[in-house]
């Protein structure tokens, strides 16, 4: 378990190590939030796409993507059922309403996860700023001490 340490008591090399650790933690938490946002955006887009599934669009022509740059023509034949990618190569058939509920649950879950990570990220940023300020103070002290010693040796 981590214990509280007064940064004023740490030496400059110790502060540098601590700052490096905090940089890594901030980077990890930031990338975690970014990854969650990417997945959340995917679910929001999927949920929004369900809006075109209505009776008035049934039978209309559309382009079906085979790759990100290759499509084939198709017809929208069933506007009541969709296949949802639930991960690791598994697909589940759901009604459009069930799919909306599924995407809403996923979006809400990801939002809650980001809300859990955000305070930890803020705390790490705050601690990192305190460490950087303490490092600057110690550097100024060392510079002032060196200048004072240089002045006394010249006198």
List keywords for this structure.
two-stranded antiparallel ribbon, rod-shaped, 17% strand, 155 residues, alpha+beta, two-stranded antiparallel sheet
Descriptive account of the structure:
The chain is an alpha+beta fold. Helix content is 63%, strand content 17%. It has a two-stranded antiparallel sheet with strand order 1-2. Strand 3 (81-87) and strand 4 (90-95) form a beta hairpin. Helix 1 packs antiparallel against helix 2.
Give a brief rundown of this model.
By secondary structure, the protein is α+β, with helices and mostly antiparallel strands. The protein has helices spanning 12-49, 96-154; strands at residues 61-67, 70-75, 81-87, 90-95.
| Cα shape | rod-shaped
- Could you state the order of secondary-structure elements as H and E? HEEEEH
Distance between the termini: 52 Å
Count helical runs: 2
State the strand order across the main sheet. Answer: 1-2
| Number of E strands | 4
Explain the layout of strands and helices:
Elements: H1 12-49, E1 61-67, E2 70-75, E3 81-87, E4 90-95, H2 96-154
Antiparallel strand pairs: 1-2, 3-4
Helix pairs in contact: 1-2
